[in-house]
Write a structure and sequence with these properties.
The chain has about 300 residues and is an alpha/beta fold. It is built from 12 helices and 9 strands. β5, α6 and β6 form a beta-alpha-beta unit.
């Protein structure tokens, strides 16, 4: 069953450790070999610039990560293909896997829309407005101030609309979320779970989930243990509990997955690397129809790709 995964941090991991091999490194959750074994169809690769990077260097570091994407992934594995449209995804041949480039946090662009357009031209087709803290666009979910979109942030969302780019609300402040609901045309939550099931601030309230359904947005259930359940040990059943809650609110046709592989230190039992996706598929088929599971695994994100 083909998989569309809306979020991983392998570019950050490979930037931090230049010696890692994308082919089969034991230190990566997502590898070329793992994607093949896990029946990947589309993998989103996030550009996440860590907070330790000085402000004057953040755009350059984003470009370094994009260079890793092109040189160490696409160039070395020709069957990994950059995809920027539904047509390109549909046109993938047997053995090919689509790669979508995404931005996690607009810190990299500062207050410069030219930098954002440059990232579009380099292949970015999804823009997460913040990580957990504040930038010129908005506050992140852990910023105590809790501010929404700035005037510049509204320009960013409008530009995403104009260029048919996803605006990703994962990590965004609550007020910023509602501002995007007003302004955004192509909205997703790439990796966010349900606050009613696990009260982590990164998770979505029922009102937010219902607003995303009204927006016809895809929502990526994530494998981050602390977003799944309180305590140290999590299992695939914890993932299913979040899916069940989403479905209870009417989101059955909005649900996908955004694993956050390589952005987490601890993993779900039975889901430690990409190639373990088959364990999740097999578990889901015990509770849902094959058509519904195919929606979760691929169709619900694919059908909403804005180009």
């Amino acid at each position: 069953m083909k998989v569309f995964d809306a979020h991983c941090d392998v570019l950050w991991k490979m930037w931090e450790n230049k010696g890692l091999s994308f082919k089969d490194s034991e230190d990566l959750h997502v590898t070329w070999d793992g994607l093949k074994q896990g029946d990947a169809r589309v993998q989103c690769f996030a550009v996440y610039v860590p907070e330790k990077v000085k402000k004057e260097s953040v755009f350059h570091v984003a470009l370094e990560m994009i260079d890793i994407f092109y040189e160490k992934i696409l160039r070395r594995f020709p069957n990994m293909r950059l995809v920027t449209t539904k047509k390109e995804i549909s046109g993938l041949k047997q053995g090919q896997i689509g790669a979508i480039l995404t931005l996690e946090g607009c810190d990299a662009i500062g207050t410069d829309l030219e930098k954002l357009r440059t990232l579009y031209r380099l292949g970015v087709t999804s823009v997460g407005l913040t990580w957990n803290h504040a930038n010129a666009v908005a506050d992140g979910i852990l910023e105590e101030r809790g501010a929404g979109l700035s005037s510049f942030g509204r320009e960013v969302v409008r530009m995403n609309n104009e260029y048919f780019i996803w605006t990703d609300v994962s990590h965004l402040s609550v007020r910023g979320f509602w501002d995007v609901m007003e302004t955004g045309d192509f909205v997703i939550a790439s990796h966010s779970n349900c606050k009613a099931v696990c009260a982590n601030p990164r998770n979505l309230s029922n009102d937010q989930i219902q607003a995303l359904i009204q927006k016809n947005a895809a929502i990526g259930v994530t494998f981050v243990p602390q977003f799944l359940a309180e305590g140290t040990e999590t299992t695939i059943i914890d993932i299913i509990r979040h899916i069940e809650h989403y479905c209870s609110l009417g989101a059955e046709n909005n649900i996908g997955f955004g694993s956050d592989f390589d952005g987490i230190d601890h993993t779900v039992h039975g889901l430690g690397k990409y190639e373990d996706y088959f364990n999740l598929v097999n578990s889901l088929l015990k509770y849902y129809s094959e058509t519904t599971v195919k929606g979760f695994m691929f169709n619900n994100f694919f059908s909403r790709f804005p180009r």
